[in-house]
Amino acid sequence: MTDLDIGAGTLALLALAGFVAGWVDAVVGGGGLVQLPALLLGLPGAAPAQLLATNKMGSVVGTTVSSVTYYRRVRPDLRTAVPMAAVAFLGAIVGAVIGLHIPKSAFNPIVLVCLVAVGAYTLAKPRLGTETALRFHGHRHTALAMVIGFTIGVYDGALGPGTGSFLVFALVGLMGYAFLEASAKAKIANVATNLGALVVFLPGGHVVWPAAAVLAVANPLGGYLGARTAVRLGSRFVRVVFVCVVGAFIVRIGGQLTGLWP
Fold first, then answer.
1. SS (H, E, C) 108-147
2. Among candidates 73, 174, 164, which has minimal Cα distance to 128?
3. 237 in Cβ contact with 129 (< 8 Å)
4. Where in or outside the cell is it found (predicted)?
5. Of the four listed, 104, 110, 179, 195, which is most buried by Cβ atoms within 10 Å?
6. What is the reported pLDDT for 193?
7. 204: which DSSP letter?
8. How far apart are the C-alpha atoms of 25 and 69, rounded to whole Å?
């Protein structure tokens, strides 16, 4: 793998990005859209697989901390969360194998299209996610959760940015959960997708360990604070943050693709 020289300034940037990413990820998901660009900026000589692997190594600690925090306070139904997480783990393994062959240039256009669709749908339905009103029950409910978990797991292994947001949106928009409970379940599935991707990335030696170590400390600190904030302020707060985060990511990625900023 590429030999990377990482200075103190770069590590400080990654620490700040990791903390912010952990907070955002715990509240609405999408922390990778903060953390991965920071890695792109701080490690310009890194290969795509190194960026993805290092991002996952930092994120898995943060998502684990926030998922435990959510579970203690929200008590999401594990009868749905566990099957969804199990197939998400398998999907992420498949996606990570695909991700080893995806060029950097493909990352942003795919993420942008998904974010625009998610943001537009959420804005068009102002009552979406304010309270739980499940659309399916029994086996159909579990089956849909597993389809969502596997599909987004593949995406997370292959690309990653926005995974938490897409999980939250799918649970709210397709299944009828309130934003707070959706965030709790999404965190459990996101732990599984991170672990699944690392099953592929770790044996290949793709992790840049100095950067990953900094992220693994900063990300869970932000994740713990974000989960506590979301639980305290409820689904309406999570929805507002969700719309703001998705909008900010659309502006940033869209500006990059149109050449408005690097």
1. HHHHHHHHHHHHHHHHHCCCCCCCCCCCCCHHHHHHHHHH
2. 174
3. no
4. Cell membrane
5. 179
6. 95
7. T
8. 13
Neighbour count for residue 253 (Cβ, 10 Å): 22
Measured distance CA(122)–CA(44) in Å, rounded = 35
What pLDDT score does 66 carry?
A: 92
Low-confidence ranges of the chain (pLDDT < 70): 1-4, 104, 107, 129
- The pTM for the full model equals 0.83
DSSP 23: H
Cβ neighbours of 247 (radius 10 Å) = 14
Predicted pLDDT of residue 2: 47
Tokens of 91: 């999907």
User: At which residue do the structure tokens 């310009």 appear?
Assistant: 44
Q: Given this model, what pLDDT does residue 142 score? A: 95
Q: What is the pLDDT of residue 191?
A: 95
How far is the C-alpha of 109 from the C-alpha of 113, rounded, in Å?
Answer: 6
Residue 55, helix vs strand vs coil: helix
- Quick one: DSSP state of residue 86? H
> CA dist 8 to 5, 28, 59, Å?
10, 30, 21
CA 36 and chain centroid, separation: 11
Burial (0-12, 13-18, 19+ Cβ within 10 Å), 10? buried
CB 90 within 8 A of CB 217: no
CA distance 200 to 34: 23
User: In sequence order, what are the residues at sequence separation of 6 or more whose Cβ sits closer than 8 angstroms to the Cβ of residue 244?
Assistant: none
With b meaning 16 or more CB within 10 Å and e meaning fewer, what string describes 45-60? ebbbbbbbbbbbbbbb
